[in-house]
Amino acid sequence: MPKRTRIALVSEHASPLALLGGEDAGGQNVYVDELGRHLAALGYAVDVFTRRDREDRPEVVEWAPGARVVHLAAGRAAFLPKDRLWALMPAFQRSFLRFMLRTGARYDLLHGHFWMSGWVVARLRCRLGIPAVQLFHATGMTKRRHQGEADTSPDERVAVEREVVHAVDRVIAQCPAEYNELIEEYGADPARLSIIPAAVNTGRFFPVPQAEARQAVGLPADGPVVVYVGRMLPRKDVGNLLRAAALLRERDLPVRVLLVGGDDTPGSLAACEVAHLRELARDLGVADRVIFAGQQQPDRLRLYYAAGDVAVTTPWYEPFGLTPLEAMACGRPVVGSAVGGLTFTIQDGVTGVLVPPRDPAALAAALAHLLGRPALRAAMGEAARARVEREFTWTTTARRTALLYEALLAERHGAPPLRERAVGAEGE
Ligand code: UDP
Fold first, then answer.
1. What pTM did the predictor assign?
2. Ligand 1 atom with least separation from CA of 236
3. Is 30 in the pocket of ligand 1 (CB under 6 A)?
């Protein structure tokens, strides 16, 4: 049997094992989980390297056939917000090399996720003499533009991203908006960029009869329900949805707003955001219509999407956005803001409606339009599910990623032997 190609997915803060919907656990965790599993199913040996953030985690966890999570020591084995991890990256890199030295693990290719892991894989690429691929998931430039003073990213972030863009063999953009941003704002070479969209697990997210779903999540069978699923962060602008709900109520179109996501950890960003949203709902006079369902595990989420008539996500910006795809896979139309990846995944007028961000009146108008037209919603829901099945499955994402890996590995064929001695030197 030919030797399996060994891939190191490096994802410093986002582990496939983490709970989703909390402060720093979101789309990247899902992405690394699904990509890792599907690459392993294609025959790759996959190790995901992530920072050890709990004392009780073993160093190595087999989490899917052919795929492992490796917890690397870097700083305290406790949760730290991701914006505080930058200083720990040299230690994280050293732990990676020590792990290789101690266990004899070897890799054929590195794939970094998020900017800090990008910095790590750019360095490991030189030390190990193997190709490196990078996927940013979000960029510092966009974050800074939208969040200004509120952006808590380390000052070095954008400069590091620029360095990584030029240091790795290939950067994956998840949608045309990110592709353009990498070229225009980071000076990326188009020849070293590939567009590979993320996807949705269609076996987990599928249509469920609405009455059944509402019963399962404890909602009355009648009356319109609008659902938001995702992290509770200012940039997701869930307040925009509450404002739209207040406008609809003024027009005698009361809707229930079902909010899924959050984090009960006192003092966490998500807990603060939920407290703020509760207050806002009270001030707007819609508190009796808003249901805070809290954080939910992925295998129950289809019930929440399906309980809604329409799914809504109106962030200020969104690098890609998995939740619209999940809602679409559950056969629900999505109203989303016309930003970033949402302009790519949501087909305006076909699978949902695009509205400007920070515009409650436009959102209210789009909701009134859809909620008054059951046949249109059903048609959009069907088109949404069909679009997902056609274009956004993890099998496709993993196959396209594998093709990219194979192209890079073929280019390396005949390159000088791996500089394995460098590993030994670091580990001592
Ligand atoms: N999610 C979840 N439980 C929750 C809230 C969110 O599992 O309570 C998942 C959601 O299904 C999606 C991911 O977290 O897969 C969020 O990804 P997205 O790309 O939409 O946004 P991000 O969090 O990366 O900004």
1. 0.91
2. 25
3. yes
